[in-house]
Specification:
binds flavin-adenine dinucleotide; alpha+beta; five-stranded antiparallel beta sheet; about 40% helix; single chain; globular; seven-stranded antiparallel beta sheet; about 475 residues
Length: about 475
């Protein structure tokens, strides 16, 4: 062993001992096999390497861990539920992985103030349940909510199915507690809806994907629990018709439009093929399907939904519609939407995009993007679904023929460029809700406005001069 290697091993062993002293033997993993499940991302695309995995019990321990790593000049990757879709929570080069799963306490639930303060390791589902038990609603809802954590949702500024009504994680967050890269604790856990005392620092850490600090707790907004829900599955021929229906609903139901989800025939077909127990509510060949949810705290809302959809049917804008008559029917309609990711995983690899556009630009974008992709990759299969009400589409590309699929995957960079360039031409974003992580880092660099890039680099350098927080992600 060379002197340099021996010195490095001894420094590493000293750091591991120091981290072990902070969390205790039971909460540090160093064995490769024990660490393996945490070192692969949800999609199985990224396989990382970590010096060790540490699980602090509270913010004070987390701060000590971060300070210790800063002192040793060793980088860190934060991880929540590991459901992120861009490889952001996978350490790349032996970073220490800090998981927040033990910070899973609800600290306060203030029903009068409609706020909840909780540890970053609470799952979104646990927060929804706690809020519901207090007759309140925590509206952040994703198909991964059973595992996705509050910290991860804030670090990625997660969206989900209710953004149209309640906004994304950023909009729901009132305050944060963050461990800064040098180990200091910033306690910004304010439960205020108005707070203009200086810069809104919390927004720096929300959506930063762990590159600026470690979120250990947050205060979020709650809402009155809606008592009446109405759900419809509707078939339309074009996205423009779907958007006309959204406009009708907004005019009549305003903020009571809870969700407006788009599913194309290809995506529905995959769910029907791969997910046991699913069946189509209307003709599965209809090119576009829309799942609509309205909700009201005071009055039944079913007839408002039925009347609006029927008016669209009479105007020839809608082909067919089915309304959920009870909870079981609602759940089975929602499961068709929520199981798309699972169905895609079973089908095989695809080139995935998570984009957003002004809703008014979507029909033109879909037309031009489909034409451009088909010109380059004849016979391509385009799967399109997403939160249409928010202008957020998931556009996933694959080829039904194995040889062509191989060619497509080999040219994935070109396919991605075609989509992203058209997104930018239409004033959209290449990262709507899943973040940048490792997956889109190069695309962000290629497409980002230089002034924005310089500002981001300045912020990163000023908060994390050693570059130790989640290196290789975002920037
Ligand atoms: C089936 C499925 C459906 C999904 N649907 C949606 C959807 O509708 N909308 C949506 O927005 N996303 C969706 N996602 C993506 C994902 O669930 C969200 O991004 C989620 O918020 C990530 O939470 P997590 O706790 O799993 O974070 P992780 O995957 O563990 O981490 C994500 C990123 O946040 C960082 N991070 C994690 N915890 C912290 C912390 N405490 N402090 C600082 N940084 C931290 C990580 O380093 C990483 O960069 C879906 C994922 C799956 C698998």
């Amino acid at each position: 062993m060379s002197t340099a290697t021996a010195e490095h091993s001894s420094r590493t062993a000293t750091l591991i001992d120091a981290l072990r002293d902070i969390v205790g033997q039971a909460y540090i993993l160093t064995d490769e096999q024990d660490m393996a499940p945490r070192l692969t991302d949800w999609r199985g695309r990224y396989h990382g390497k970590s010096l060790c995995i540490v699980r602090p019990a509270n913010a004070a321990q987390a701060a000590q861990l971060v300070a210790c790593c800063a002192h040793a000049g060793v980088a860190l990757t934060p991880q929540g539920g590991n459901t992120g879709l861009c490889g952001g929570a996978t350490p790349m080069n032996g970073e220490v992985l800090i998981t927040l799963e033990r910070l899973n306490q609800i600290q306060t639930l203030d029903t009068d103030n409609y706020t909840l303060t909780a540890g970053a390791g609470c799952t979104l589902q646990a927060l929804q349940t706690a809020a519901a038990q207090a007759q309140r609603l925590f509206p952040l809802s994703l198909a991964s909510e059973g595992s996705a954590t509050l910290g991860g949702a804030l670090a990625t500024n997660a969206g989900g199915v209710h953004v149209l009504r309640y906004g994304n994680a950023r909009n729901l967050c009132l305050g944060l507690e963050v461990i800064l890269p040098d180990g200091q604790i910033w306690n910004g856990l304010r439960a205020l809806r108005k707070d203009n005392a200086g810069y809104a620092l919390k927004h720096l850490f929300i959506g930063a994907e762990g590159t600026l600090g470690l979120i250990t707790a947050a205060t979020v907004q709650l809402f009155p629990q809606p008592r009446h829900h109405a759900l419809a599955w509707v078939g339309v021929n074009t996205i423009a018709a779907a958007l006309r229906l959204l406009e009708r609903l907004r005019q009549r139901a305003a903020e009571r439009v809870n969700a407006f989800e788009l599913i194309d025939a290809q995506a529905l077909g995959l769910v029907l093929r791969h997910c046991a127990g699913t069946r189509t509510p209307i003709d599965a060949q209809t090119p576009w399907h829309v799942l609509i949810e309205l909700a009201d705290t005071a009055d039944p809302i079913q007839s408002l939904l039925e009347n609006t959809v029927e008016a669209a049917l009479e105007a020839g804008e809608v082909n067919d519609a089915v309304f959920a008559g009870n909870l079981a029917q609602s759940q089975s309609l929602w499961s068709l939407r929520e199981r798309i990711s699972e169905a895609q995983q079973r089908e095989g690899t695809s080139i995935k995009h998570d984009i957003s556009l002004p809703t008014s630009a979507i029909p033109h974008f879909i037309e031009s993007c489909t034409a451009a992709l088909e010109a380059h990759f004849p016979g391509l299969r385009i799967l399109c679904f997403g939160h249409l009400g928010d202008g957020n589409l998931h556009l996933n590309l694959s080829h039904p023929q194995p040889a062509e699929q191989e060619r497509l995957m080999a040219q994935s960079e070109q396919a991605r460029r075609i989509v992203h360039d058209l997104v930018l031409d239409n004033h959209g974003s290449i990262a709507a809700e899943h973040g940048i992580g490792q997956l889109k880092r190069d695309e962000l660099r290629r497409t980002q406005n230089p002034v924005e890039r310089a500002l981001m680099t300045t912020l990163k350098k000023s908060l994390d001069p050693q570059g130790l927080m989640n290196p290789g992600k975002v920037l």
